[in-house]
Design a protein that fits this description.
The chain is of the alpha/beta class and 722 residues long. It contains 35 helices and 17 strands. A 7-stranded parallel β-sheet has the order 3-4-2-5-6-1-7, sandwiched between helices. It binds adenosine-5'-diphosphate (ADP) and zinc ion.
């Protein structure tokens, strides 16, 4: 059966390989076993039920609350030659009865239906008279009151079990919380052992955070990298949406607003224009995006801070669904965090309030970390994320900041926490340190403390940055209900000068270096533009969205390989039999003309080599691969340091990542670069043999701290490549 599924993947959908878990899920479902599938937005949930639906003899019912999404999905399925129909309240009477007729005639493999339509009189009876092989519940978290989008009508879905005892049930969601997962399993009676949890790492999203200084200008500058490309900008309020959309429009950008204050018609129109590539940018409140699966969203900007790490992740997840690189920018300010806190504070239920504060805090951790942004992000979703660096975030590419001794600042801060009775949050402590004359401070008499006014050398912002590092390093804990800071035992050691603290200082200037990597990829821009134009013409004529015809990724493939024969055209991403038949002629014509003019021959697309699971699957090479390849081609460690402007330890970390994927590296330079005596080197190697290479600390300890980490990194590479 796997084989059949594989064949459909290529022939119908035009994809070469399954994404992680897709193959397993499909196999499982084809064996008529229920499944709960958890994948991040853009992870590829749809294929998990669409492929079985094309193999099953009977009908697959897909319940979805997202009516606009349904339409896209059905259109996309029809494009690849599958027979899908939908039933919901937006259909005209004629279209509705036509679809009912198709069902009765058993002409459909897939039925998309809104839950409220499903329970209308007559529908269940009709479906009961058909052979239903699979029931898929999309956005299954809507069934749980613990989910972020509970819908009461979803509860009724539990009754489907009895009605369709022979159908296999599949529930799909992108929500990761265990409580929601448990709820889904128990309400739909899915054996919780049948859970498929995909990695939440979306390797093609480039993550960036800028300190928010002059957001309108920052946005405008950022947008210059994306001429004609689609993107979404999220704002906190309707008013902000209007102002920003106006500003961008005045600056010549193609943009529309989207928020709950607009009429249904206006919202629908703006969304449609965006989906059809008639409008480049949507400025929206969070209300936008649930119901769209436009695959070529190339950037998402958070103009304001989202309210939680979950919302952030879901919103950036709307970018880059086609697997091509997409850019995510968060404009971050402490003031925004305060605003969100204020709103959370309005929540009545103390438990909910606490949960919301934690979700916000995690997001701030992500925004303020000096390390790889994926570490706090992916770990939040309960995943054991091991990579030290992803090479797809600003921190990984910007080179690390120098750590400095911040013991004195820590002592000032901690003793101020102590002297104010461990009753206050960071904001208050900072005010005392900076000698503020705020009413609250004066009325508490805190202007008489010895720590009053001893921290004027840092700005408020710098102090908050420091305070977060103290928390992260375990010097402070925070009371979840009141937000007050308390000292830990580690703090006493710092106060008594037994332990030093190292960390980073934030510069006062807010603009971070905008070192964005070159993600251009190597494809023919001119041909791409022509193909895009053709795609748009065809889409308009057929009244569908452009990405329904071909994704950006397909066009990029064509603009890379210049296919001129049907055989090579069929090798392009997303080209299956149906699309070949329908569009091959038209697109081949464009490519041949182009190739004649510019004298380009077609290039066979050799199947990509299997990529190990841990690497993000992207269309360009991650930094560590580039570094490693350059190294293997003879570049010395010194040259690489100079070229990338980073420390040797960074280069060594890149090489280690590469080696850990089973790749070989030139070895002679490692031993040569080591400054240790031969016998010491041997001792280190023995320690690696004994203790493993995953962690350096144990080896460091085994050598009694006498071999520094740089040496250990070098010798580890030597050891791995012997
Ligand atoms: P989700 O529902 O999980 O958010 P989708 O099912 O909409 O994600 O898939 C996201 C995009 O990825 C779609 O454009 C889809 O065609 C594409 N896709 C899915 N599976 C594959 C695959 N195996 N190879 C290439 N592209 C895929
Ligand atoms: Zn990173």
């Amino acid at each position: 059966m796997q084989q059949k599924a594989q064949q459909i993947l290529k022939d119908v959908f035009g994809y070469d390989e399954f994404r992680p878990l897709q193959g397993e899920v499909i196999d499982h479902v084809l064996n008529r076993r229920d499944a709960l599938v958890i994948m991040p937005t853009g992870g590829g949930k749809s294929l998990c039920y669409q492929i079985p639906a094309l193999i099953f003899e009977g009908l697959t019912i897909v319940v979805s609350p997202l009516i606009s999404l349904m339409k896209d999905q059905v259109e996309q399925l029809r494009e690849v030659g599958a027979s899908a129909i939908l039933l919901n309240s937006t259909l005209s009477r004629e279209a509705y009865s036509l679809n009912i007729q198709m069902l009765k005639n058993r002409q459909a493999n897939l039925l998309y239906v809104a839950p409220e339509t499903l329970f209308k009189t007559g529908i269940l009876e009709l479906l009961g008279s058909l052979q239903v092989d699979c029931i898929t519940i999309d956005e299954a978290h809507c069934i749980s009151e613990w989910g972020h989008d509970f819908r009461p009508e979803y509860r009724q879905l539990s009754s489907l079990r009895k009605r369709f005892p022979h159908a296999v049930f599949m529930a799909l969601t992108a929500t990761a919380t265990p409580q929601v997962q448990e709820d889904i399993c128990s309400i739909l009676d899915i054996n919780s052992g049948h859970k498929f949890l995909a990695s939440f790492n979306r390797g093609n999203l480039f993550l960036q955070v800028f300190p928010k200084a002059d957001p309108a200008r920052q946005t405008l500058e950022f947008l210059q990298q994306f001429p004609d490309q689609s993107g979404i900008i999220y704002c906190f309020s309707r008013r902000q949406v209007e102002t920003l959309a106006d500003f961008l429009g005045k600056n010549g950008l193609s943009v529309r607003p989207y928020h709950a204050g607009l009429s249904d018609d206006a919202r629908r129109e703006n969304q449609e224009l965006f989906i059809r590539d008639d409008v480049q940018i949507i400025v929206a409140t969070i209300a936008f995006g649930m119901g769209i699966n436009k695959s070529n969203v190339r950037f998402v900007i958070h103009y304001d801070l989202p309210k939680s790490i979950e919302s952030y992740y879901q919103e950036i997840g709307r970018a880059g669904r086609d697997g091509v690189r997409a850019d995510c920018l968060l404009l971050f300010s402490a003031g925004d965090a305060q605003k969100v806190r204020f709103f959370i504070d309005q929540k009545e239920d103390p438990l909910q309030r606490q949960v919301a504060f934690v979700h916000l805090d995690r997001l701030i951790d992500m925004a303020e970390t000096e390390g790889c942004r994926r570490i706090p992000l992916i770990r939040y979703f309960g995943e054991d994320y091991q990579a030290e660096r992803c090479d797809m975030c600003d921190n990984c590419l910007g080179g690390e900041k120098e750590k400095v001794d911040i013991t004195l600042a820590a002592q000032k801060f901690l003793s101020c926490v102590f002297r104010t009775g461990q009753l206050y949050g960071a904001g208050y402590i900072i005010d005392v340190l900076r000698g503020s004359a705020a009413k609250k401070i004066l009325s508490n008499g805190h202007q008489h403390l010895t720590t009053y006014g001893i921290g004027k050398e840092y700005s408020k912002k710098q102090w908050s940055h420091l305070a977060r590092q103290f928390s992260r390093q375990g010097l402070l804990t925070k009371d979840l209900t009141y937000g007050s800071l308390k000292l830990t035992s580690k703090a006493s050691q710092v106060l008594s000068s037994q332990e030093k603290v190292f960390g980073t200082l934030q510069e006062e200037t807010t603009q971070k270096s905008r070192k964005t990597p070159d993600y251009s990829g190597d494809y023919d821009r001119e041909l791409f533009t022509q193909l895009r134009q053709k795609r748009k013409e065809l889409a308009d004529a057929a009244n569908v969205a452009p990405f329904v015809i071909f994704s950006d990724k397909s066009l990029i493939d064509m603009a890379t390989f210049y296919p001129q024969s049907e055989a090579v055209f069929l090798q392009m991403h997303g080209v299956g039999q149906a699309k070949m038949k329908r569009y091959g002629h038209t697109f081949l014509h464009v490519i041949r003309e182009f190739a004649n003019t510019y004298n380009k021959g077609e290039i066979e697309k050799t199947p990509a080599p299997a990529i190990p699971r841990s690497t993000p699957k992207t269309d360009f090479k991650p930094r560590y691969v580039l570094v490693a390849e350059a190294y293997n081609n003879g570049a010395s460690l010194k040259t690489l340091m100079a070229e990338y402007g980073v420390k040797i330890t960074t280069i060594l970390a890149h090489l280690y990542n590469y080696a850990m994927e089973g790749n070989k590296l030139r070895n002679e330079e490692f031993a040569k670069a080591s400054r240790l005596s031969q016998s010491r080197q041997d001792a280190v190697i023995r320690a690696f043999e004994e203790l493993g290479v995953e962690k350096l600390r144990p080896v460091y300890d085994a050598m009694n701290g006498r071999v520094n980490y740089e040496e250990l990194q070098l010798l580890r590479l030597y050891y791995l490549n012997r």
